[in-house]
Amino acid sequence: EAGVAQSPRYKIIEKRQSVAFWCNPISGHATLYWYQQILGQGPKLLIQFQNNGVVDDSQLPKDRFSAERLKGVDSTLKIQPAKLEDSAVYLCASSSSQSSYNEQFFGPGTRLTVL
Amino acid sequence: DAKTTQPTSMDCAEGRAANLPCNHSTISGNEYVYWYRQIHSQGPQYIIHGLKNNETNEMASLIITEDRKSSTLILPHATLRDTAVYYCIVRAISGAGSYQLTFGKGTKLSVIP
Question: pLDDT category, A61, cuts 50, 70, 90?
């Protein structure tokens, strides 16, 4: 089966610019996650979707970050305006409630550099 | 979620068993131990999980102590491709069938030729 797809793989922007990342989860996976991974740290959950509804966005900086999953399939994460500290890898993951152990499958990530 | 403690880094000779420890002394009765790994420039990858019994799959074995306060991930014959950061995560599985992962800094395993 195809894995989690993300694009772009790399993005360089200047501070105060806006940027968007796209994620296409594994077909049939109802749950989608966005993580932020700063260099040298483990991934940190930003937002979790169940179908097209938000389950948890408590760690999403809502003044500048937004995310949507309009049709319950692919998702977009946006940052506007970007700050230097947003430089990180943004990972998308998906999981299926049909799985007996709820394994999360991760995409390759988008590496964002804010100058 | 219970907090986990892992060594920052470990080395292992190629072909030898790699034993990665994890302490989770505050684990609750309904919390599972999960292991993920992250190879450089890739997203994390699920390895194995367990509740209280030892578990084995095609990738690794998980040994959980009887009091469940610590566990060890065993890669029986480490290869260079096993060089990665290994994350031990403790998490209860929700009835909704989904769960969140709280990653620490993990253990950087270097497999040496």
Answer: very high
